[in-house]
Amino acid sequence: MKARIKWVEDRTFVGQSGSGHKIVLGTSKEPGGQTPGPSPMELMLIGAGGCSAYDVVHILEKGREAIEDCSVELDADRAETDPKVFTRIHMHFVVKGRGLAPAKVERAVNLSIEKYCSASAMLAKSAVITHDFEVVDTSALASAD
Questions:
Q1: 3-class SS of residue 82
Q2: I want to staple 92 with a disulfide (CB 3.0 to 4.6 A). Which of 27, 73, 85, 100 is the partner?
Q3: Does residue 140 sit in helix, strand or coil?
């Protein structure tokens, strides 16, 4: 896997993946100022959420569950001193579908966090990672309309 980062100006950079995708990232010169894109640490958190969400969807689809949507809300704390690594990450999964079995969703989330998600595995070296989930049955929502 390869990537390239190019400085544009001030605190603005463009990252390009080996597959050719680009993303603007950076920080503000002043605390609370306008940023050109997510910071590198925000990208790491997004990457962990994306990695786990991908796993959960893949596992449930493989199990022929009627999954319609999956989102992960992440909340993290960082160390106060350099290098300001993540010290705590909580992942809240919201999985929607028709008649989803909560036990299967729980299994998919656990497998992602504990076995498959390489991003979470790396971050777990410095952070305590916790997770929970909720299942939204869309068949009940559709019949209410």
A1: coil
A2: 73
A3: helix
